Amino acid sequence: MKNLAIFDLDNTLINTDSDHAWPQYLIKKGLVDAAETEAQNEKFYRDYQNGCLDIDAFLKLHLAPLARYSKEELAEFHREFMAEYIIPHISPMQRMLVQSHQMAGDETLVISSTNEFIITPVCRLFGIANMIGTQLETGPDGRYTGNYIGTPSLKEGKITRLNQWLAERGETLESYGKTYFYSDSKNDLPLLRLVSEPVAVNPDAELEKEAKEKGWPVLNFK
Question: Keyword set for this entry (predicted)?
Answer without folding.
Answer: Hydrolase, Magnesium, Metal-binding
